[in-house]
Write a structure and sequence with these properties.
Blueprint: H1 3-17, H2 25-35, H3 40-52, H4 56-69, H5 74-86, H6 90-103, H7 108-120, H8 124-137, H9 142-154, H10 158-171, H11 176-188, H12 192-205, H13 210-227
Helix pairs in contact: 2-3, 3-4, 4-5, 5-6, 5-7, 6-7, 7-8, 8-9, 9-10, 10-11, 11-12, 12-13
Length: 232
């Protein structure tokens, strides 16, 4: 009997034997954990419960236990990596995400997660590689374009970063973060006129975002100076 089958039988037994006892999902999995604490599926679901409650340290322990016993399900390592990253343990996150990529190399999300962890370590080239792999697997992965652009900008490859943000906005034009990042990149490229519509878009989408308002005024001022005729 496979582990998944055993897990389903366990839940069926618990549900039939204690129908009136379950008040919520936590009760279900807590009892399942008492019955079979070494099941990676129970460990994984307990981790999910604690993570949903924001109790990351507790979730991490369950994910680590699940990863000890479950070596075929890449989502276990993805969740483990997410939790490590949220706790600021970037090296451990990279290791977990690398394991997920090894197990599921055709998963765009796995490459995206690994790229984010590598970027957190300022490993820009490696992060770029996995963002690009992610986009080869899923050409409409909006967040990957946005984060790829950030990684390119950190490598002073501004024109490529601008193209990535533009692609991101083609796919999701209502993303204020991408508009703001693109506008800033255009300003650094001395393209104030091109930046202004994006600052305005930020303020339309997020009216209370003060940095965009200040940046828009700077862009308008620079555009005005650009239009003034030079003295002979």
């Amino acid at each position: 009997l496979c582990l998944a089958g055993a897990w389903m039988l366990l839940l069926a037994w618990l549900s039939v034997s204690h129908t009136g006892h379950w008040q919520n999902t936590r009760t279900l999995f807590t009892q399942a954990y008492k019955v079979n604490p070494h099941s990676p599926y129970v460990q994984f679901e307990m981790g999910n419960l604690f993570r949903a409650e924001g109790k990351l340290a507790e979730a991490l322990g369950y994910y680590q236990e699940a990863a000890r016993f479950e070596t075929k399900d890449y989502t276990v390592f993805s969740s483990l990596g997410d939790t490590f990253l949220a706790l600021g343990h970037t090296q451990e996150a990279v290791g977990a995400f690398e394991r997920a990529v090894q197990m599921k190399p055709d998963s765009a999300r796995s490459h995206y997660n690994l790229a984010n962890a590598l970027a957190a370590q300022e490993q820009w080239r490696k992060a770029e590689e996995h963002f690009r792999t992610c986009l080869r697997l899923d050409a409409n992965f909006v967040e990957a374009y946005n984060n790829l652009a950030i990684v390119l900008a950190r490598q002073n490859r501004r024109s490529e970063a601008i193209q990535a943000w533009q692609r991101s906005l083609q796919l999701r034009p209502d993303n204020p973060e991408a508009h703001f990042n693109l506008a800033n990149a255009l300003m650094k490229a001395n393209q104030a006129s091109a930046a202004i519509p994006h600052y305005k878009a930020v303020l339309r989408l997020a009216p209370d975002f003060a940095p965009a308002r200040a940046a828009l005024q700077r862009a308008l001022s620079r555009k005005s100076l650009e239009r003034k005729p030079h003295s002979p």
